[in-house]
Amino acid sequence: MQANIFAKKRRSTLGTVFIVGAVTLLAIITTEFDVIKGFASLPKAVEWGLGNFYPTKESLAKLPDIMEMLIETLLVSIAATTTGAIFALLFAILGSNTMRVNMFFGHISRGIATIFRNIDVAAWAMILLFSFGQSSLTGYFALFFGSFGFLTRAFVETIDEVSGGSVEALQSTGAGYFPIIIQSVLSSSLPQMISWILFMIETNIRSATLIGLLTGSGIGFTFNLYYKSLNYDIASLVVVVIIVTILLIETLSNYVRRVIL
Description:
By secondary structure, the protein is an all-alpha fold. 85% of the residues lie in helices and 0% in strands. It has eleven helices and no strands. It has helices at 2-31, 35-40, 42-52, 63-95, 103-117, 121-132, 136-162, 164-172, 177-215, 218-228, 232-260.
């Protein structure tokens, strides 16, 4: 019996490897990518990076300006995430199996969240550029829509997983809809929801760098400006600042998760 299970898993693994390899080969042929040339160029790329792309003492003079744009990016990311979380909570309650008003509103809520979740934030930024132009507001709405879609799905699963038993218990006692939300849904789901919000803030800070390239705002625009003007030392300083910021926020986020979960 165990031998049959092992053989079945082995065939499944080999089949998966074969499919991935076939798709990779097809992609290489379709894009006409020269694998040998690509790997051969790596040493030169590393050599160029070590010789040009590093902060210098002169580039540190631009650090205050970089920090100002970084703070703007952080504030936009946090604002988009928190406001997206508020709307996501409302739609998650309507879309959850345990708390939805009826099946119609449940499907509508899930459908709207699915649409927003499956459109990438970069695509949202490009769409919104036609309405708001290159500004921080464009980046904010792009991150807001992405956060709303993702958090709605996460909150729906959290509510259905954590609150099911307590909701049924309160319903059996004759408790009303809103008391059940306050006493059961929010109280039992809040720690996990906060964890998802923190994760979304981390993700949005990373995404905001790319969004800034499109919207002409924040730390992404700063990097693009110095990189295109061939000021590689300042551009590398921007990258270092972004990496350090993300690591600090991730460390803080992981600490908060350990405390609340």
